[in-house]
Amino acid sequence: MSLIEDLNWRHAVKAFDPTKKVREEEVDKIIEAARLAPTSSGLQQFRVIAVSNQEIKEKLVKGALNPDSMKDCSHVLVFAAWDAYSAERIDEAFDYTTEVRGLPKGRFSSYTDKLKEIYLSQPAEVNFAHTSRQSYIGLGLAMAQAAELKVDTCPAEGFDNNVVDKVLELDKLGLKSVTLLYVGYANEEKDWMRPMKKVRIPREEFVIDVK
Amino acid sequence: MSLIEDLNWRHAVKAFDPTKKVREEEVDKIIEAARLAPTSSGLQQFRVIAVSNQEIKEKLVKGALNPDSMKDCSHVLVFAAWDAYSAERIDEAFDYTTEVRGLPKGRFSSYTDKLKEIYLSQPAEVNFAHTSRQSYIGLGLAMAQAAELKVDTCPAEGFDNNVVDKVLELDKLGLKSVTLLYVGYANEEKDWMRPMKKVRIPREEFVIDVK
């Protein structure tokens, strides 16, 4: 199947079957697609926390719009972004890049100096908006990968970030939760979205051609 | 090829061949992947402006970090997000949904009332951060689709948003530019990124398993 066929196949599943678990091998592929996501300056400003532990999943529920989906899905993938930029984080990312590429350490220092100049002078909320949006590239690719595997998903912003951050102790990792992705297999009877037609505005409204 | 193979194939191309244009049919598929992107509450808070007109492309260049890529690529796709939430925009999106699904108008009014309550009370910059990040789901899927077609791309945040917004008169559409995607075919000699190894932090650093 092509990507477009996969994207037409998927929908935001509204009820999961708690008896069906996604195989680890498939969860790994979904996470791999997110890991391969391109990010601004290649900094990979986000991480994924893959929660399959039922007890922990139930602790994340408080404040969630779809608590049953959280409980019944196989894995909750938490997309969490860097809570802030720092010179250390930027250097660490680029030191790893030069190491992998066999280049001298500091090879990109004029570029990293520029990044530091930009980010370290911006307000914290502007920077977190920036790290957060990178995670959405990974979110989209993870959903596409799940669709390729015919694994159901539902992205979810409707949850209490403070609860999730606290339960997973994300502050210790310098991260803050941004979005969730419920991964599993639909409860086809309860999933009210399933019979509904996919709705997207027509191409002519979505795109403006400047030829 | 699988999505993961496609993601491993792609890289951020640093120089394009100005003599090679991407066929409209392929550009359409890339845009279609972005159109199919899921978005928060299904609102599709972003649009794509597809610029292939050389004169306009050259007007977008001022302030861009890679002016040659902008000029030499085949198409510049501008991902632009809603500049603000409004009751009208939310109603319009849901009226279209009920129309397509053959449901009574206002069927989702308790949900849309809640959305209005949330968004219309939030500061403008919080809302724009939210609409902006939706566009990154589309950006990721557009890059994946291009890779499936073996079309080269480079995502670019390094440009002057004010210039792009003004040249394309995005304010008249209630949009603001968020990111660009250069689409075309690499100039293989000048593309200094091509021979370099793809760098991603290892899986064990990217993911935290809570089993």
Please characterize this protein's 3D structure:
The structure is a homodimer of 211-residue chains. By secondary structure, the first copy, chain A, is an alpha+beta fold. Chain A has a single domain, classed as 3-Layer(aba) Sandwich (NADH Oxidase). The first copy, chain A, is 45% helix and 16% strand. Chain A has nine helices and five strands. Chain A has helices spanning 3-9, 24-35, 54-60, 67-72, 87-101, 109-119, 124-148, 161-167, 203-206; strands spanning 46-51, 75-82, 152-156, 175-184, 207-210. In chain A, strands 1-2-4-3 form a four-stranded antiparallel β-sheet, sandwiched between helices. In chain A, helix 2 (24-35) packs across helix 7. Chain A starts with a helix and ends with a strand. At the A-B interface, helix 1, helix 2, strand 1, helix 5 and helix 7 of A face helix 1, helix 2, strand 1, helix 5 and helix 7 of B.
Keywords:
alpha+beta, about 15% strand, about 210 residues, homodimer, 9 helices, about 45% helix
Summarize the structure.
2 copies of one chain form a homodimer. Chain A is an alpha+beta fold. Chain A is built from 9 helices and 5 strands; from the N terminus they run H-H-E-H-H-E-H-H-H-E-H-E-H-E.
